[in-house]
Amino acid sequence: MSAIAAAPVRRSRRSWLFAIGLILVGINVAVALLTLVWLPYDPSSTAGGRLEAPSLLHWAGTDRLGRDLFTQIMIGSRIALMVGAGAVAIGAAIGVTLGVLSAFATRLLDDAFAAAFDILIAFPTLLLAMLVVAASDTASLGSAILALGIAISAIVARLTRILAKRVIGMDYITAARTSGTSWPQIVIKHVLPNIWPTLLVNFALQFGLAVIAEASLSYLGLGAPPPNASWGRLLQEAQGTVYTAPFGAIAPGLALLILVIGINLSADGLRDIGDPTRRGSR
Amino acid sequence: MILSVDHVSFSYTRDRQVLDDVSLTVQRDRNLGIVGESGSGKTTLLRLLLGLNRPTSGTIRFGEQALDTSDRGFMRAYRRSVQAVFQDPYSSLDPRQNVFGIIAEPLQSLDIAVPHREAVEAALVSVGLPPDAMNRYPHEFSGGQRQRIAIARAIVARPELILADEAVSALDLSTRIRIVELLKTLGLKMTLVLVSHDLGVVASLCQDIVILERGRIVESGKTRQILDNPQHPYTRKLIDSAPRMPA
Amino acid sequence: MSLLTVEGLKISTDGRALVSDLSFAVGAGERMGLIGESGSGKSLTAMAITGLLPRNISARGSITLDGQQVIGAPERNLGQLRGSATAVIFQEPLTALDPLTRLGRQIEEPLRRRYRRDGLDPKTVKHEVLALMERVALPQPERIAAAYPYEVSGGQRQRVAIAMALACRPKLLIADEPTTALDVTTQAEILKLLDSLVRDLGMALLFISHDLPVVANVVDRLTVLRNGKAVEQGPVRDVLGAPKNPYTKTLVEAARAFDQALGRTP
């Protein structure tokens, strides 16, 4: 009742937040693209002074070896987007497929699926990453993305399964069946559109977590090899000097925060656009 | 005879029989009311008639042919002839589809070669909604209007038979009577099977009646006769329990 | 002075009126029916009377219950009033009962509160629980007292909810669609039970429903709500016999049409 009356106010605030989210993500994408053609400094040049504070020359200061931090953060944004988007894409593709299959499966098969998801979720991502590296011989950004994608797929699959089961129990699914709609069509027309909003918000969350998780993987040598400066690696490197040169940790931390907030706000906005009850005017 | 149910039993698990040796027939142009309370198996019976579940034993016949849910060609023809209206108009319409998409679904899924737009428009008009409703979404409509949309979906493919599961019991009294009037008009063009606990509604719409109690038919026949002269004690109890206005 | 007096009640949220200028009174032992369809504001009115409106919905005007003003009263006073002056029975007994507590204990709880308030001997509580269960015609009270809500039928759950309401010895019983979720035969039994309890215990009854024939047989007076406004008020006989408002007329005609289809039984 109250939601109806309050909707216009909330809607305008929502669209503001959505715009901010898009701008934040847009900046990240723009910077990531820019790094392909131009960088303020050579990322491996150690010409700057060590651990310099931010200045006009070095906007985010320099690291222990005198490399420009801002340059590394710019490169990091490219890696972060690749890791986040890549891992979520893999996770979504596998997770949604398995989740939907499980929701439609017979009782026995569904139980087996559910148990498999739970085991995979309990499985440490780190161990998974090591297995992936072992299987592909070399540690690379690709193997980190694949490992994170598999870890995410289990979470997405479990969520999809629960959401899809709830939708399948609704009368409009029965109505679709009596209208002669086949199961694959029911999934595309009714199930996915109705579970999409919740999944989308979860994808945004997983995106942020993947970017952070990649940090630990590269710290252990299971992620992008140097000199690919991921934000996680920058954070880890700044660990030892966090009291003498805090900007070394603050700058990549801030960059990570901005991207994660941007992704989350954009996901909320996309969810609202896909929902006729939030979008429509009465 | 459109539909006949021949010694049908159904159980989900081995030890509990939901339907026990049920036989009935649906005659063309005679609406049938299936009356029962929770646990009577009336909803299960409806699901069997809709081909959503298979009977554990016994057969359902559509005309001369036995209902076989694995025969895709037959099911296609069957779905075209038999459509459904459900109880809760809030959960029977997909909130993410607009009204056109909802009503056109049987036409699309069953590949019915008619101009979809015109067919949806005609269906909307015959349930008393304006044609421009097709561009709107379910949440913009009241419960009664939603049930009209659900009825429009059921009649858009011009079926012979409509199976309605408590189609008016979730509606307010003044809306209920209007939907019953609508169903009565539609009943002139097609046959209606109404599953309900509400004897007043069944009596308003159905010439024939079947009383179900715990999975068995306890009484069946012409509605008027059964209401005026019930034979089974359970039927009598149902009739006595129906809330009536004080004289 | 009446037990319950509602005067110029206005319920609104974000400047939108949900109930406007509603006035009615229920005297001790009197039975009032509040009839309206979904969105008419009937359940909001019940929540306002018990002081249970959600925070974002505000009530203005005056509601006096057993001599106390409800609107604007502090929560502490309301809690007391809810225990002693009024008790509510809800539509869905499955969600109104705690799924993890045995039914006997659920009846015991309000009973113990009353015993403490009235300074009665708590040793007799257990006995009174069973007595209450018998009062609402629950078969095998010992067995049901030890059962959980999901283990008994819908009708039995509603009887337990009624027993809980009775445990408070309320002067006013508010029944909000108490039979809507039940089967027809169970509904008839519960209505009969409510009718006899209210008569025997001399309680006042506020019966809220969308179902005119259900209410009409239990109450003496009717208030018909539509879009938050009372469109007609009066004794059942007058309202049903000669409805003045066009909306009431539609309702009465609809109910009579179903009755007629059903036919009169001797």
Quick summary of this structure?
The complex is a heterotrimer of chains A (282), B (247) and C (266). With 282 residues, chain A is mainly α. In chain A, 75% of the residues lie in helices and 0% in strands.
Provide a descriptive summary of the structure in words:
The complex is a heterotrimer of chains A (282), B (247) and C (266). Chain A has 282 residues and is mainly α. Chain A has one domain (11-40, 59-279): MetI-like fold, CATH 1.10.3720. Helices cover 75% and strands 0% of the residues of chain A. In chain A, 42% of the residues are buried. By secondary structure, chain B is of the alpha/beta class. Chain B has a domain at 3-90 and 163-241: P-loop containing nucleotide triphosphate hydrolases (Rossmann fold, 3-Layer(aba) Sandwich). Chain B has helices spanning 42-49, 72-81, 99-109, 116-126, 143-155, 173-186, 199-205, 223-228, 233-241; strands spanning 3-10, 19-26, 32-35, 57-62, 65-66, 82-85, 161-165, 191-196, 208-213, 216-222. Chain B has a six-stranded mixed sheet with strand order 6-7-8-3-9-10, with helices on both faces. Chain B has a four-stranded antiparallel sheet with strand order 2-1-4-5, covered by helices on one side. In chain B, α3 (99-109) packs parallel to α5 and α4 crosses α5 (143-155). Chain C is built from eleven helices and ten strands. In chain C, strands 6-7-8-3-9-10 form a six-stranded mixed sheet, sandwiched between helices. A four-stranded antiparallel sheet of chain C has the order 2-1-4-5, with helices on one face. Chain C has a domain at 95-169. Chain C is globular. Chain C has helices spanning 42-49, 75-84, 93-96, 103-118, 125-135, 141-145, 154-167, 184-201, 212-216, 236-241, 246-262; strands at residues 4-13, 16-26, 31-35, 58-65, 68-69, 86-89, 172-176, 204-209, 221-226, 229-235. In chain C, a hairpin with a 2-residue loop joins β4 (58-65) and β5 (68-69). Chain C is 43% helix and 24% strand. The relative contact order of chain C is 0.16. Chains in contact: A-B, A-C, B-C. At the B-C interface, α6, α7, α8 and α9 of B face α8, α9, α10 and α11 of C.
